[in-house]
Amino acid sequence: MADGRAGKVLYKRHSGLVRLTHWLNVLAISLLLMSGLQIFNAHPALYWGQKSTFAEPWLYMGMAEVRGEPVGVTLLGDRAYRTTGVLGYSGAEGRREPRGFPAWATIPSYRDLASGRRWHFFFAWLFVINGLVYLSAALISGHLRRDLLPTREQWRLRHVWRDVLDHARLRFPRGEAARTYNVLQKLTYLAMIGVVLPLILLTGLCMSPGFNAGAPWLVDLFGGRQSARSIHFICAALTVLFVLVHVALVALSGFWNNMRGMITGRYAIETEGVRP
Amino acid sequence: MSAPDRRRWLAGAGASLAGLALTACDRLNAHPGFTRVLASAEGLTRRAQRLVVDRKALAQEFTPEDLSPDFKANGTIRPSSPAYAAHAAAAFADWRILVDGLVERPQSLSLDELRALPARTQITRHDCVEGWSAIGKWTGARLGPLLDRAGLKPEARYLVFHCADHLGPNQDESDRYYESIDLIDAYHPQTLLAYAMNDQPLPVAHGAPVRLRVERQLGYKHAKYVQRIEAVADFAHIRGGKGGFWEDRGYEWYAGI
After folding, report:
1. Mean of pLDDT values over A213-242
2. pLDDT by residue (tens digit) across B32-62?
């Protein structure tokens, strides 16, 4: 199906279900992230194990005084960083307050744990139901096997290495090669779908004292409730990292074409002179 | 537009959109209808958890080596009323626990009578809604046998715990702490009226002389300084009508998550 202009064809890249679940996931994860930071701010410290070792968090954000001046401090392991204005102590000049993450990163922007929890648990249900719909459809329709599992050729070390170099040079596949995901892309999506996002859900459940009574083995598997809370936070941070790289690559490899692909489903590829 | 201009324009537009979205979230958060929609997830969570977790499933128990050396005291740490101060000065010799409301035989128990009831000791993890956890050893009277002694009327569905402390800024009746649980949790074997913590009489900071332990729920359900247990059919007529001090301030009645 040529779209009229020479050398370009539009083809159906994403099914309706993939597009719908993608954007619902964008909504759910954005709101989960920001309401999650509101919840984190209620006790901006992370620990390993079952219980909080209050004197020894591995991550802590708060306010400290240096020569009579309040500053924001972030402790990470044995290191301390001055993070005034962003972490630990932030807000408009003259109205700064001690808080873990700043107002622009939390829902609601002001301190309100009860509201943050309401947003979080509502959109957690959207995230879970949407994720289950996507996963079952991806399994049944063959989307997972056809589009996301690397091919035998892609698994070869030389192929992977070339793909790494191509990414480093910001050289993106063109023509027919752009019809399918490259191997780094496939592995990243699979890691998000199969590892990071399920871990977020499971560690989230492990913070629930009600759920713990039903599945104490699961919270033990993660090393205790405070470990689960730490892993939950780390997976959320990995998700932010994924989104940053994902959006950057979307922009660099043809922003409007990619957006059209995920909105209307149709994606343009160059035909290299050979019309299909 | 040249490429850098376009980039700057996109960045500016992105930042404005993000700002708008955040303002929109704050406004939505203040909207009662929207809050009700968000809060509807609580019922779903409670039902889902009760579906997959056995009603009698025990909360995890730990060993003495796991005890927190630094169990944090939260909420009221020392009730401010002169009446409570007098009780504390007298080592709670005259403290009574009332059991009334929808019961056949209202009870008024001294601490000695409470200690004579069927007891249980458990080392459990206390999970605060703020996110931290601490492990403590609790000894107390099991609530179930006490309720049987009082004889719940058939229409009783909830127990309301009235406390001696005032947590809000007003320090009056409107700020008095209270909580409520249903009969599933009331008859759970780990639900206690705890009078000892880590083999010592319950400290004032942790709710002396008696606090509720309702394992499997977050810390704010574990009412401290308990004076009266009222069996009710419904808590809509009590105080803010949401079944607890924090519930009236927007927190979930079901604190299993």
Report:
1. 97
2. 999 999 999 999 999 999 999 998 999 999 9
Domain range for residue B181?
3-249
A2 pLDDT exceeds 80? no
Q: Is residue B256 part of a domain?
A: no
* Inter-chain residue contact B132 with A219, CB threshold 8 Å: no
pLDDT exceeding 70 applies to what percent of chain B? 100
Check CB contact under 8 Å for B129 and A113: yes
Distance from CA of A70 to the nearest CA of B (A): 24
Kindly state whether residue B255 falls inside one of the protein's structural domains: no
pLDDT digits (tens, 9 = 90+) for B167-192: 988 888 889 999 999 999 999 999 99
CATH no. for residue B13? 3.90.420.10
Decide if pLDDT at A67 tops 50.
yes
For residue B93, tell me if it sits in a domain. yes
Q: How many CA atoms lie within 13 A of B147 on its CB side?
A: 28
Best B37, B127, B248 member to test A by mutation, with max A CBs in 10 Å, is B127
- Label residues B135-174 b or e (16+ Cβ within 10 Å = b): bbbbbbbbbbebbeebebeeebbbbbbbbbbbbeeeeeee
Count of other CB atoms within 10 angstroms of residue A181: 16
Whole-number pLDDT of residue A272: 62
Per the listing, tokens 């005890």 go with B67
In a domain, B35, yes or no: yes
Domain count, chain B: 1
